[in-house]
Every structure is written in structure tokens, then in C-alpha cells.
């Protein structure tokens, strides 16, 4: 890839795809309409104390009814792609068996609206809203769920495959498995490391079987979307090349295996790292990993979707128990507070994105890269019809500068989708955390372009960053 630095612009490659992303349960609302079944998130939201403020996705951004207005907004911003997710319980209310045509009708309307606006639909098949009926049969701890997923993928592709070119299987299997079944902070709210590792494997199997189902239907561009993060020590945050003690190096490698390579290696190389197998064997046993599973998981895919928010910072911590989100991390410390943070408390480290992209293209050169999520929550204040979110603009600018330098260093990055188009239901945080470049008033459902959206529009128009403003945000700006 060659990119020109034209005049005052740090230019991205021609054809670079700019877009935005959302997920069904976070934006759609209409939880009981047109035959939609219950998902594990409907159930989890009713659990007292599970969600900040007792919020639910019942109404969310009402995108189910306002999708045309939202597509107009995307068109006004000049976006080339919209990554949305399909709600499995709209398509198969019981997670298996007959499809609900009215549920598929919604996605057909949405896709047609996008195509009419010249926006490419990127359809994610699973962004965490498992049909409750399947959870009642074991959810992702049950092997059968992976086979049900492939059936569901076929049903969606049968209806939309003539119009959707880009398909994404499962979003962030690490989060589903380890926050949902291990930590219990996401649906279904279970707290078992054994369940978490089983779920993790079955989500990977679902990905592989899903790719096969989509391919059989003729799908052209298929991706797996992972939450990935460079794993570094606190000292390496500002000095990535720093040499490590053997104990720190072991801590970094172990956590990298658990959060990154547990997913990358099976999907892209057909094998779990030895280190992962040892930990899974010790905690959950290996009986759930059947002969042939790795071959089923290892399907050729065109794209790897990268959701990047913050690095994972660790160091050796002799005697410490495992972090409950990362079973297998005994004797490792997860220090916080090494950089200014967003409203989520996540440290802001734009260089983590360049590091990650360069490493992925080096280690997995066969797959193209797309940033399928990157963005930040900040405490926005509305003044009149403006939202002056300079902190979000600085966040995006810093990360896009990092993405640009990764491309210059050889990363095969093809697109960038901002998380998120709209303020939305931020899972366990409810509506209190706002990630949108478009503000949503959840009382009136009024949409308002934030300053970051106006900045993004200009970026898309010039397909690049302005050099005079392209710089890392200062601590004051992001504090
Ligand atoms: C994404 O998950 C989701 O796909 C999306 O639905 C969601 O709205 C969005 O992020 C924002 O949350 O170790 O404390 O520094 C991102 C999940 C976020 C999981 C960062 C690991 C590390 C936090 N990842 N997190 S910390």
C-alpha cells in the first residue's frame, strides 16, 4: 500500500472504508415487536443490580423505527459503511427451528435503505444477544449452540445474501465467554471459569461453522471480529521496545495468549497455543475440544475485525490470585492508572493501536484488517444544539494518526469504523456512558451531531487527517 502525504493532509489509501458501528441490543429497542423472542440480555437486565440505573434495552435508540433517519445521518456524514448486528431472537425467536419472517423484514428494510444511500452494510451475526431458549439449554457452554448458530447464519444469508457483501460472524468471543460466563458482569451472568473456557471454544466453533454456512451460500467477504489489545508492562506503555525481566516476559506472554492468541491462532492458524491448552486443561479439562474442531474453526476468511479500546497492562505479581476476568493469570498483576482515562476508566493509549495493527499484519499476513470498533465514552455536555466533545475528537484523531502510521509501517488496514454512531445502551453501564459521535436524547429520541461527528465528516471528505491538527492529544485535553 502506498499513501501519499499530500500537502496539508496525512492521506489514507484510496478506497479506505470509513464507517460507523452499532449492535442490535444497544440501539434497536422494539424488544417485543414483530415476534422477537427473548434474549439473554432481556433476562439479565431484569436481574436486580445487574445494570447501572436498572436500565434495559427495551427502547434504546428506537433504531428499529428510526433506522431511516439514522441512515440519513450516516449519509450526511459521508460514511461508506455501517456495521450493524442482526438480533438472533428476531430471526429465530426460540434460537432454532422456524424463522420469523417479520424479523428478517426489518434487516431487509435497513439494508435497502443503506444501499439506496450508497452505504455498504456490514452485517454482524452475533453481538451477544443469544436467544434465551438456547441459554435454557446451556447457552454457549453447550456444543449444540454452535450448530444452531450455523443454521441461523444460513437463514440470515438466505434472505440478505444478495445484498450484503460483508459478513461478520461473532463479535468479541472473549467478552461473551469471560465477562458473560466467567465474571458474570454480562449476560447470562454466570461465574464459572470452566463455563467460560467451554463457551470460548464453542464460540470459536460457531465462527468456523458459521463461515462454512455463509460460504455455502456464496458469501464473498467474511470476517471474525475480536477485541484485541497489545499486552505490555506499565513501563512499556511509553517505551514499547523496553526489554523485560523473564518474570515480566512470562506474564506478558501468558496474558497475550489468553486474550489475543486464544482466538487468533485457532481461527487463522488452526491451533491453540500450547500455553492456552495447558491452562484450559488445568481449569476446564479438554473434553469439550473434539477431534476436527480446530480444522472446522480454521476457515479461510478475508478480513479480521479489530475492536481496540485500550492496551492490557500487566506485570509479574508473585503470589497474586488470578484476575477473575482472566482465569489462568495467577501470579500476575493488572496495574491500572498508567495513563489518562475515558469515562469508562480505560486508559487512552493511541500508540497501542499502531502496535497492534503492525503486529497483526506481521503475524497473520494472509488476512486484511479493518478496525471494526474504536471510540470512547466521555461526559458530554449539550449546549443548545451543539455538543462540544473535544475530548472525543482528540481520542479519534490520536488513534487515526496511529492507524495511519501503522499503514505506513506495512499494516494491511482497509477501513475504520467508529464506535459508535449513536449514544446507546452501554451494557452493564446502561445509558450513562455515551460513545456516540451523534448525541441521543433518550427522552425525546432527538439526534444531534456532536462536534466529533462534524470533525469525522471532514476527515472522510479529505480521506485523511489535517497535518496542522494531527497530533497526539495533550493530557489536559483528555483529562
Ligand atoms: C465493545 O467491547 C463492544 O463490542 C461494544 O458493544 C461496546 O459498546 C463497546 O466495546 C464499548 O464498551 O481492562 O478495564 O482497561 C469492548 C470490550 C473493552 C473489553 C475494554 C476489555 C478492557 C478494560 N473491551 N476492556 S480495562
TrEMBL record:
A single BP term in Gene Ontology: regulation of DNA-templated transcription
Active site: 172, 373
GO CC terms: cytosol
GO molecular function: beta-glucosidase activity; DNA binding
Binding positions (substrate): 26, 127, 171, 309, 419, 426-427
The enzyme's E.C. designation: 3.2.1.21
Top enzyme class: hydrolase
Keywords: Carbohydrate metabolism, Cellulose degradation, DNA-binding, Glycosidase, Hydrolase, Polysaccharide degradation, Transcription, Transcription regulation
Catalytic activity: Hydrolysis of terminal, non-reducing beta-D-glucosyl residues with release of beta-D-glucose
Superkingdom classification of source: Bacteria
Membrane-spanning ranges: none
Protein family: Belongs to the glycosyl hydrolase 1 family.
Name of the protein described by the UniProt record: Beta-glucosidase
Species, as recorded: Sphaerisporangium album
Amino acid at each position: 500500500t502506498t499513501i501519499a502525504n499530500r500537502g496539508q493532509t496525512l492521506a489514507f489509501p484510496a478506497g479506505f472504508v470509513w464507517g460507523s458501528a452499532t449492535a442490535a441490543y444497544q440501539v434497536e429497542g422494539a424488544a417485543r415487536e414483530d415476534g422477537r423472542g427473548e434474549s439473554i440480555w432481556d433476562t439479565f437486565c431484569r436481574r436486580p443490580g445487574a445494570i447501572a440505573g436498572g436500565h434495559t434495552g427495551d427502547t434504546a435508540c428506537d433504531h428499529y423505527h428510526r433506522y431511516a433517519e439514522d441512515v440519513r445521518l450516516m449519509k450526511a456524514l459521508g460514511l461508506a459503511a455501517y456495521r450493524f448486528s442482526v438480533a438472533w431472537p428476531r430471526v429465530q425467536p426460540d434460537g432454532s427451528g422456524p424463522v420469523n419472517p417479520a424479523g428478517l423484514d426489518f434487516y431487509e428494510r435497513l439494508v435497502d435503505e443503506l444501499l439506496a444511500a450508497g452505504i455498504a452494510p456490514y452485517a454482524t451475526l452475533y453481538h451477544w444477544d443469544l436467544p434465551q431458549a438456547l441459554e435454557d439449554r446451556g447457552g454457549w457452554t453447550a456444543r449444540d449452540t454452535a450448530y444452531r448458530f450455523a443454521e441461523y447464519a444460513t437463514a440470515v444469508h438466505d434472505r440478505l445474501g444478495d445484498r450484503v457483501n460483508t459478513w461478520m460472524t461473532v463479535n468479541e468471543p472473549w467478552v461473551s465467554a469471560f465477562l458473560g460466563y466467567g465474571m458474570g458482569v454480562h449476560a447470562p451472568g454466570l461465574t464459572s471459569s470452566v463455563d467460560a473456557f467451554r463457551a470460548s471454544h464453542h464460540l470459536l466453533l460457531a465462527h468456523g461453522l458459521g463461515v462454512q454456512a455463509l460460504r455455502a451460500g456464496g458469501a464473498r467477504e467474511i470476517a471474525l471480529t475480536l477485541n484485541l489489545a497489545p499486552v505490555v508492562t506499565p513501563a512499556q506503555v511509553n517505551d514499547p521496545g523496553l526489554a523485560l525481566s523473564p518474570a515480566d516476559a512470562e506474564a506478558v506472554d501468558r496474558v497475550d495468549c489468553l486474550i489475543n492468541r486464544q482466538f487468533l491462532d485457532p481461527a487463522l492458524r488452526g491451533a491453540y497455543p500450547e500455553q492456552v491448552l495447558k491452562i484450559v486443561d488445568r481449569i476446564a479439562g479438554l473434553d469439550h475440544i473434539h477431534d476436527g474442531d480446530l480444522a472446522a474453526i480454521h476457515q479461510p476468511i478475508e478480513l479480521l475485525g479489530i475492536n481496540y479500546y485500550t492496551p492490557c497492562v500487566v506485570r509479574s505479581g508473585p503470589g497474586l490470585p488470578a484476575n477473575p476476568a482472566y482465569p489462568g493469570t495467577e501470579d500476575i498483576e493488572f496495574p491500572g492508572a498508567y495513563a489518562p482515562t475515558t469515562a469508562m476508566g480505560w486508559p487512552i493509549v493511541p500508540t497501542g493501536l499502531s502496535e497492534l495493527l503492525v503486529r497483526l499484519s506481521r503475524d497473520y499476513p494472509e488476512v486484511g484488517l479493518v478496525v471494526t470498533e474504536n471510540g470512547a465514552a466521555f461526559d458530554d455536555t449539550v449546549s443548545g444544539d451543539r455538543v462540544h466533545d473535544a475530548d472525543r475528537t482528540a481520542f479519534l484523531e490520536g488513534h487515526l494518526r496511529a492507524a495511519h502510521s501503522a499503514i505506513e509501517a506495512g499494516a494491511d488496514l482497509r477501513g475504520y469504523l467508529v464506535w459508535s454512531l449513536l449514544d446507546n445502551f452501554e451494557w452493564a453501564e446502561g445509558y450513562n456512558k455515551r460513545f456516540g459521535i451523534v448525541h441521543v436524547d433518550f427522552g425525546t429520541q432527538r439526534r444531534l451531531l456532536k462536534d466529533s461527528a462534524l470533525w469525522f465528516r471532514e476527515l472522510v471528505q479529505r480521506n485523511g487527517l489535517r497535518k496542522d491538527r494531527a497530533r497526539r492529544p495533550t493530557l489536559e485535553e483528555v483529562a
